[in-house]
Amino acid sequence: MKPSDKAYTLYILKCSDDTYYTGIALDIDKRVHEHNTSDKGAKYTRYRRPVTLMYQESCHDKSTALKRERAVKRMKRSAKEALWICG
């Protein structure tokens, strides 16, 4: 399997200031840990710790994950919340 063929996960984090952060990762557990503890987490979340994983969605490849990330980032807050409330 080529690195580009690995399954990616789209995720939404809830930050301590009640905002949401959307990203993609190959290893979701490692990435959430990085957001909460290391300098490898996004600058946005670094100053809004702790963060909580609210939603995750598996994507077949990086291209699909990036397209989905872009779409989710454009969503209104209520639409993002509906992802985990409505399933």
From TrEMBL:
Organism: Sulfuricurvum kujiense (strain ATCC BAA-921 / DSM 16994 / JCM 11577 / YK-1)
Protein name: Excinuclease ABC C subunit domain protein
Span of domain GIY-YIG: 6-82
A Pfam entry, by short name: GIY-YIG
Similarity field: Belongs to the UPF0213 family.
PROSITE patterns cross-referenced by the UniProt entry: GIY_YIG
Domain of life: Bacteria
PANTHER family in alphabetical order: UPF0213 PROTEIN YHBQ (PTHR34477:SF1)
